[in-house]
Amino acid sequence: MFPLKKYVLLMTKGMILVLGVLMAIILIITIIGFIMTLLVIRDVNGQIKKYESSGDTLQNEVARSHDYETSSLKTSVKSLSWINIILWIVIIIIALAFVLFGKYL
Hints:
Elements: H1 13-53, H2 58-101
Helix pairs in contact: 1-2
């Protein structure tokens, strides 16, 4: 028979607690990112409704559409990119902290 202790990952109670806390933090960060993304989407939808409610000529709609396309790339995509970059950096830092300092538990 093979000794089972060699092949089973033994975790201390402290490691299990830290892992649970880290998973909870990552879940909270993911939820925050989702909420922030929804806020950006709501802002964009508000702008679209505002544009639709102001009935203008075809030329004004085309100009506004072009303006919206250029401004949305500057604001919405930029905001979403920063939200995701910051959240991923935080998650990577938390994961590295667990890997580096988990052996001390």
